[in-house]
Design brief:
301 residues; alpha+beta; 2 domains; two-stranded antiparallel sheet; 14 helices; DNA-binding; transcription; repeat; DNA-binding transcription factor activity
DNA sequence: AAAAAGTGCAACCGCTGGAGG
DNA sequence: CCCTCCAGCGGTTGCACTTTT
């Protein structure tokens, strides 16, 4: 079978450009897609006058130029979703990305490799091991939930979307996040069809929903924390031990995905300290404090 | 101040599978 | 079926930038 690269080696592809995209190229691609739509990427690349493979154009569009693509650090909510879904699905980045509106599979993959795997290295645990997953649920995710709560209280007077995107983005991210930020601001808003609304929530029994009407399906318990998150509404409880995921794009065909996390097998987790509270009382648990510190490093927001 | 090491992320690569002729 | 084209996925790389020495 001829692969993508082979199919691009024919006529007209002998002077293909590679590497970083220029402002002019971005403008060409955006303008062309605004006028003609995307798809048929090889044809699109030629028609738009881009000396790029269709594959490269597709990647640039989906990962960077497409409207509604979020930039900057992942919010604690997004990190929670990633950790949960990865524990269930593994490296199914695109599948995970479907539950994080505005985030790309590439971004999630990079997050996992640079942050999560780095933490696994610090702990000297295989990031694919059950032990590491347990560590995530035991130590990391509760802390993320705390972050969510803090964010919630801090941003009660303003929308979370705005506050997280602005306050959680480091100077470095601002510098790096876009090659041509001003171009995106000015060009990406024009003549693009609205993206489908996407909602996710985690209910009182820690259930993740992807639906257009999850609020209708679940009463909202009083002790539940909820958070507006762009087009999504996310509900968390505080235990986060069992998560069920309902993909209710078609509500009549509820697709329940059980994300139950085995929380009763912590004996395999070879940490010296048993619980979170003790871990946070540094003097009594140096090792755990180290872990805690390392995780804080990861979450630098 | 400069070099080395580390980090983060955009972009590329190879592969797979579906669609259509 | 077989072949080609294409879209999409996950893994990997290259490099700009930051931090450390």
């Amino acid at each position: 079978m001829k692969n993508w690269t082979d199919s691009c080696k024919g006529e007209g592809f002998d002077q293909l450009k590679r590497g970083a995209w220029t402002l002019e190229e971005d403008n060409l691609l955006i303008h062309y897609i605004n006028c003609h739509g995307d798809g048929r990427w090889n044809l699109l690349a030629k028609s738009a006058g881009l000396k790029r493979t269709g594959k490269s154009c597709r990647l640039r569009w989906l990962n960077y130029l497409k409207p509604d693509t979020k930039r900057g650090n992942l919010t604690p909510q997004e990190q929670l979703v990633i950790l949960e879904l990865h524990s269930k699905w593994g490296n199914r980045w695109s599948k995970i990305a479907q539950h994080l509106p505005g985030r790309t599979d590439n971004e999630i993959k990079n997050y996992w490799r640079t942050r999560v795997q780095k933490q696994a290295r610090h702990l000297k645990i295989d990031s694919n091991s059950k032990r590491f997953v347990e560590a995530l649920h035991r130590f990391w995710m509760p802390r993320l939930l705390e972050k969510v709560e803090q964010t919630s209280s801090l941003s009660s007077s303003s929308s979370l979307t705005n506050s997280t995107d602005s306050t959680l983005t480091t100077k470095t991210d601002q510098n790096k996040s876009s090659t041509h930020p001003q171009t995106e601001q000015t060009l990406l808003t024009s003549s693009c069809p609205p993206q489908p609304s996407h909602k996710e929530c985690i209910n009182s029994s820690s259930t993740v929903f992807a639906s257009n009407s999850c609020e209708k399906m679940l009463p909202q318990p009083p002790d539940q924390m909820s958070q507006l998150y762009g087009d999504s509404t996310i509900f968390y409880n505080s235990s986060f031990q069992n998560i069920n995921c309902y993909n209710t794009t078609n509500i009549n065909e509820l697709d329940m995905i059980d994300l139950a996390i085995g929380s009763d097998d912590m004996s395999t987790l070879n940490f010296q300290l048993a619980d979170n509270d003790r871990m946070r009382n540094g003097p009594n648990g140096d090792m755990a404090a180290d872990i805690y510190w390392n995780m804080d490093e990861l979450w630098k927001l």
